[in-house]
Amino acid sequence: MKVRYISQLLHMTICAAFGLTSPLACAEQPSQRIEGAFLQVGEASHTLSVTAGIYWKLSWHTDWHGTSLETYVETSLGRWHIREDGATHSPWISQVGVTPVLRVNFGGESQAWFSELGIGANVLAPLFRENDRRFSTTFNFGDHVAIGRHLDEENDLVLRLQHYSNGGIKHPNPGVNFLQLRWMRRF
């Protein structure tokens, strides 16, 4: 019951944030079925990351000017490793996140190319410290832009630029940017 309520709330939040459709259409029940899983690797200046997760589609989608717009929510679990020349504290960081995502399929869902944008909530522990950069909170936002390609009916390959920061909740707030490569597999 709680998962159902949370996913519906996330769905309505995505609709409201992107102004995608009427509030009544946003109230439709999102899908409860896990759509697929992903594995990604990424790199920031002195930090490497490996992340795995699952995702599920939300019920809202539409066709708009030759493109197909859809939404999904992902949950992720990752490990970051700060290489020794950049570590000033623990070289290992754990990351847990939840992110609603808007995907634009160019030429409709059956076409090969798509782009994405999303912003979610993440917990990073212990605090991220790399050289002279130090996060002041374990809670951080993770926003990304991406471009991807449907390889076949079950697999996607995605190149992402992801930024983590606390959004100015507390200072210092240096943020960190990752370039990530993601493989997604639909069930």
UniProtKB/TrEMBL annotation:
Residues 1-27 form the signal peptide. It catalyses: a 3-(acyloxy)acyl derivative of bacterial toxin + H2O = a 3-hydroxyacyl derivative of bacterial toxin + a fatty acid + H(+). Its main location: membrane. It is a multi-pass membrane protein. It is found in: Cell outer membrane. Keywords: Cell outer membrane, Hydrolase, Membrane, Signal. Its EC number is 3.1.1.77. It is an enzyme of class 3 (hydrolase). It holds the Pfam family PagL. One of its GO terms (molecular function) is hydrolase activity. It comes from the Bacteria. InterPro entries: Lipid-A_deacylase-rel. Belongs to the PagL family. Homodimer. Has lipid A 3-O-deacylase activity. Hydrolyzes the ester bond at the 3 position of lipid A, a bioactive component of lipopolysaccharide (LPS), thereby releasing the primary fatty acyl moiety. This is Lipid A deacylase. It comes from Roseateles agri.
